[in-house]
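User: Hey, quick favor. My workstation is busy. Could you predict this chain's structure for me?
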Amino acid sequence: GVIVPALHHTRDAPAGTALLLQYLSDAPDVPLSERVRELPRYEIVKAKAGFPPEALPSAYTALREAAPGGELDDTDGLRIEWPEQRRWLHVRPSGTEPVVRLIAEAPEGESARSLVELARRVLAQWGGA
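Assistant: No problem, here it is.
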């Protein structure tokens, strides 16, 4: 689902629908298929790893050092974003399982996979599986 941080930090299907309708209404005479072709493409990669919760602060510090140049957000775990490259990595503890979730998005799948693998390598140094 779509998350609109200006509203709240949870998935919101009605907000996503409203954003889509607004996007379509900006050019009502342009076919939907053409508008879709204008949108950028992204690939998302998700993984999870067993990790001791008490080691997360140290792992977050190590991730910051291993991924320089990114914009940092620690609202929910650690999110590192590189806007100019249109890619990001989010590492956060699961709220339902004893694991850490690794999520990355980028225009190319290989770039997203490399971010997840970077996080795996760093977590492994701090006791992650």
